[in-house]
């Protein structure tokens, strides 16, 4: 299997320069001219985390697609409970509607919420967590698909994107741990909702 190598854009930035508080040890005289040493970015240090970030971004997109597919399963099961086998109407609905660009993730999220409420698939606290998590899942998926990575000499790698306003997420261990927790929790809640829907259909 060929591993592809595609071009990507990364921005390297330095911390804001405070010209009012330049230390004496930052001032150098070179060829009779005064020069201020503002430090440097270690590009080797910056680039060592880049493969992990790219791999994580790929996993985020892949897992978000899986979450959306499970949402589709619940929507289809709700509408076609009486026929679990091969059914051209069920397949048509999935392929021509759910898997097309006709309906957005956000619309599926709202439909799912209505089904969860109507069928009482999750209790109140879990319903709220699921809706909150699905918002985060789509936000993270879109941020890695449409945002851009920057390396800051002070903060390290961060991701800039637009979501209800300009966002700037620092990609530290706390960020990745929170993201991982939300994805696992979301899949667990969807599994629970789907099992309860299946049980109610068979009873």
Number of strands: 6
Distance N to C terminus: 47 Å
Q: Helix coverage percent of residues?
A: 55-70%
Q: Roughly what is the average pLDDT, rounded to an integer?
A: 84
Biggest sheet character: 4 strands, mixed
Low-confidence stretches: none
Strand order of the largest sheet: 1-4-5-6
- Which band does the percent of strand residues land in? 5-15%
Which geometry do the CA atoms define?
elongated
* Alpha-beta classification: alpha+beta
Structure explained in plain terms:
- A hairpin with a 3-residue loop joins strand 5 and strand 6 (166-170).
- Helix 2 packs across helix 4, helix 4 runs antiparallel to helix 5 and helix 5 (124-146) packs across helix 6 (173-202).
- The chain has helices at 43-48, 50-79, 88-98, 105-119, 124-146, 173-202, and strands spanning 10-13, 27-30, 33-36, 148-152, 156-162, 166-170.
- By secondary structure, the protein is of the alpha+beta class.
- The chain is built from 6 helices and 6 strands; from the N terminus they run E-E-E-H-H-H-H-H-E-E-E-H.
- The model has no long low-confidence stretch (mean pLDDT 84).
- The chain has one domain (55-202).
- A 4-stranded mixed β-sheet has the order 1-4-5-6. A two-stranded antiparallel ribbon has the order 2-3.
